[in-house]
Design goal:
alpha+beta; Phosphoenolpyruvate Carboxykinase, domain 3; five-stranded antiparallel β-sheet; four-stranded mixed β-sheet; 5 helices; 25% helix; ADP-ribosylation; Poly(ADP-ribose)pol_cat_dom; NAD+ poly-ADP-ribosyltransferase activity
Length: 238
């Protein structure tokens, strides 16, 4: 490197962005659950946004990502998830428990994430988005919104962002919101026909994958344990 030339921050972030990011991370560790904006020039941003855009399979125009936020969950949620992940990894012999990123759309009754300053969770009990970020997913609330679960009472996500978009709603903001989640899929069984009687995966499996064809046009992933999933990112788009 030439004398007097300063090295550049990694991932095309400016020095103020890096400093703000690191400060936010330290704050997040002590204030979780909390969301922290991901700099648009970072590798993390590019990876998540690329997955969002490439997995938009519906014939509608791919929307623009406005903001991306990293979700820092409560330590109790993290511990339960890690313990479950480790258990599946050990019992199945699958590295990482076959953990994948999957999309989930839900109701947002506030403007969380729309701008850099709108980063505080609301207190509305009807805002499913904030309640999931606050305490993760709850099987007890499965199916309350749609009164239907193609594969029974479970927590539903999809590898297809445009499918999750069908379930994203809210009247408080012109923008839409979607959660990107870490899902411990373990050993999966693939189904193409509806079975609303399921309350757990078939014996010997950890998750159900609804395959396109048969009764579905787009994929679904269903887990039946609160600890098998955690919200990791919030995508604001429109």
């Amino acid at each position: 490197m030439a004398r007097g030339r300063r090295s550049q921050p990694r991932n095309n972030q400016t020095e103020p962005e890096v400093s703000s990011w690191l400060s936010g991370m330290l704050h997040a560790l002590s204030g979780a659950p909390i969301i922290l904006e991901v700099p648009s020039g970072s590798e993390m941003y590019q990876q998540v946004v690329q997955q969002f855009t490439q997995q938009w399979k519906h014939p509608t125009q791919v929307p623009s990502v406005i903001k991306l936020w990293r979700i820092y969950a409560d330590q109790t949620v993290l511990d339960r998830f890690s313990n479950y992940q480790r258990g599946v990894e050990n019992s199945r012999g699958i590295p990482g428990g076959n953990t994948r990123r999957r999309f989930h759309g839900t109701v947002r009754e506030c403007c969380l994430g729309d701008t850099s300053s709108e980063n505080a969770l609301c207190r509305l009990t009807t805002c499913n988005l904030c309640r999931i970020i606050q305490s993760s997913f709850q099987l007890a609330k499965a199916g309350q919104r749609t009164n239907f679960g193609r594969f029974g009472s479970g927590i539903y996500t999809s590898a297809t962002s445009s499918k999750a978009n069908d379930y994203s709603s809210g009247s408080a903001s012109p923008n839409k919101a979607m959660l990107v989640n870490d899902v411990v899929m373990g050993k999966v069984v693939k189904l193409t026909r509806t079975d609303t009687s399921l309350r757990r995966p078939p014996h010997g499996f950890d998750a159900v994958i609804g395959e396109p064809g048969g009764d579905l046009n787009y994929d679904e992933c269903v887990v039946y344990n609160n600890d098998a999933i955690r919200p990791s990112f919030l995508v604001i788009y429109g």
